[in-house]
Amino acid sequence: MAGHSKWANIKRQKAVVDAKRAKTFTQLSRAIIVAARSGIPDPAGNFQLRTAIDKAKAAGIPNDNIERAIAKGAGTFGGDNNSLEAIRYEGYGPGGVAILVEALTDNRNRTAADLRAAFSKNGGNLGEMGCVSWMFSQKGVCTVEGVVDEEQLLEASLEGGAESYEMTEAEIAEVFSAVEDLETLNKTLNEKSFQVTDTELRWIPSNSVEVTDADQARSLLKLIDTLEGLDDVQNVTSNFEMSESLMALSIV
């Protein structure tokens, strides 16, 4: 199974076990701040903000925290959050695996130093901008649960402008679209009574690297876990393929 899909599933399982609440709250609050700053601070007219708020509510973030994050993004709350900027970093993991890291930071030097240390201590190296991003294309992704009729999903997806879909688990599908069609796809699937549990922009690899060595697998999964644990990191995407038995090393 593709690393980006299976790893997402494992992360969801680990989140339940580890309950990394503070980290999750920080990530989602920052996403709200940036979304509110990049468009109007009204979720009704800002799809990015609406999606960020939905994720925050699903994670159990109190409404007061959400409203405060919106106010910070709109510049009506105060503080130094206006200095947050979105940056993408690129590098290689063990076995030549390509890794993209999306961060929100108020200090580029600190973030770069943290990332460089994480890569070097776990068998990888932080590269220059553009060194691996050419292997990825950004897509809109809707995760749909409770799929019992693939024909109905296909019809609704096509109507919403989807490019493809993939059944990742029993009754769970990921529906892919062009970035600009994600809002339409999300709206159409909901109107067709599908259970959309997540909506996001994701970097999809055009090629993959198969990892078969146990030591490399352990180092790679530790690297990704370390990167995701950094305060400034929002998302980590890679292009590895790995068996489920090796993937299980991440939760041992």
From TrEMBL:
Transmembrane segments: none annotated. Residues 85-240 form the TACO1/YebC-like second and third domain. GO terms for molecular function: DNA binding. Residues 5-75 form the TACO1/YebC-like N-terminal domain. Keywords: Cytoplasm, DNA-binding, Transcription, Transcription regulation. It holds the Pfam family Transcrip_reg. It is found in: Cytoplasm. PANTHER family: TRANSCRIPTIONAL REGULATORY PROTEIN YEBC-RELATED, TRANSLATIONAL ACTIVATOR OF CYTOCHROME C OXIDASE 1. Belongs to the TACO1 family. This is Probable transcriptional regulatory protein H6G24_24990. It comes from Calothrix parietina FACHB-288.
